[in-house]
Amino acid sequence: MLQDTNILRIPGPSPIPPSIQRAMSQPMIGHRGIETKELLQRIKPKLSPVFGTEQDVLIITGSGTSGLEAAVVNTAQAGDDVLVIVTGAFGDRFAKICESYQLNVHRLDITWGDAVQPEIVKDYLKNNPQIKAVFSTYCETSTGVLNPIREISNVVHENSKALMVVDGVSCVGGVETKMDEWGVDVFVTGSQKAMMLPAGLTFIAVSERAWEVIEENQQPRFYLDLNKYRKSLNEASTPFTPGLSLLFGLEQALALMEKEGLAQVFQRHQIMMEMTRNAFKALDIPLLTSDATASPTVTAIQPEDFDGEMLRKQVKQEFGLELAGGQQHLKGKIVRIGHMGYCSPADVIQTIGLMELGLRKLGKDVTLGQGVAAAQECYLKQEVSQQ
Ligand SMILES: *Cc1c(COP(=O)(O)O)cnc(C)c1O
């Protein structure tokens, strides 16, 4: 096999654009110097629109999970009643973080592959008025579901005083996010998914209402105390040494998004999702999620008459194409394709084409090009509908 080939189509980490790679190789600078201050000042106004907020977005050096943990320790304290919507492995992680801090966790478990219905959240809150915060994933990466955050946030605010906290790690930067308009109180994302960077930074946007809770919250915390990050960011600084190389990369990532246009970035993800789904429909391979609940950043297929793990192994060995498997009880049952961040319709066509070859090699009776053609047709239609 051609060496140094790695077609990374897993739902994070995602590939890095060359210009971001180059930006990250800049020599180190002093984190208390004027250059870092100016860098943060340039980044600030460009990061907020990605979240759809007027608030400054806090930057913590740490993986996405540190952002989730920060969201928990800042908005709640031991003994508080919180509702965690669990639509997959990452909702489950949110629940486990809450349990670690001895919150009184109410789990709303939804069948994996489905999105949560706002009505259920509404009923739960009406029966449990003591709930102080509601935690939900936006894109549930383990299934490829996009939860209806706007609607959930509405029912939360109409039926309770709870804060709405959202894990947007695998979609913010690739999917429309309107934090202020939707009334989301804390929105978290990570660097290695739709933001086109390596892992290592987490971004957190906080509403005014959430700040009131955070300022008063007695929960012990140090590195993840958001008050520190807010105070520092107001001075264009960070409380601790930031991952500076990642910040160099972030500035370039935001420049790329700005040049393409945020609306176009979101549209590109939408098109990639539709192309991928149409391809597997044409190949008669079941999808895990419905069209109405599918995420533009990741698609899960449910193999019935072939071994998904064998397919993953095959395309990895032969073409360097890396796909993801299932998590927890979906392990070995689904194959997940990431199409987020530095990924285009051209990449989707390549992925489908290689998967068709892999399927044939496994002995599955597929007509070569059938999935690719469906993706191509879909691309053309999408192009027309956008004009
Ligand atoms: C990737 C991911 C995370 C964070 O994972 P880290 O490995 O800590 O960066 C959290 N939530 C979702 C939905 C994710 O996809």
TrEMBL record:
InterPro entries: Aminotrans_V_dom, Aminotrans_V_PyrdxlP_BS, PyrdxlP-dep_Trfase, PyrdxlP-dep_Trfase_major, PyrdxlP-dep_Trfase_small, SP_NH2Trfase/AEP_transaminase
Source superkingdom: Bacteria
Keywords in alphabetical order: Pyridoxal phosphate
Pfam family, any one: Aminotran_5
UniProt-listed SUPFAM superfamilies: PLP-dependent transferases
Aminotransferase class V domain: residues covered: 28-330
Cofactor(s) annotated in UniProt: pyridoxal 5'-phosphate
Cell membrane keyword on record: no
Family of this protein: Belongs to the class-V pyridoxal-phosphate-dependent aminotransferase family.
UniProt-recorded name of the protein: Aspartate aminotransferase-like enzyme
Organism in which the protein naturally occurs: Virgibacillus alimentarius
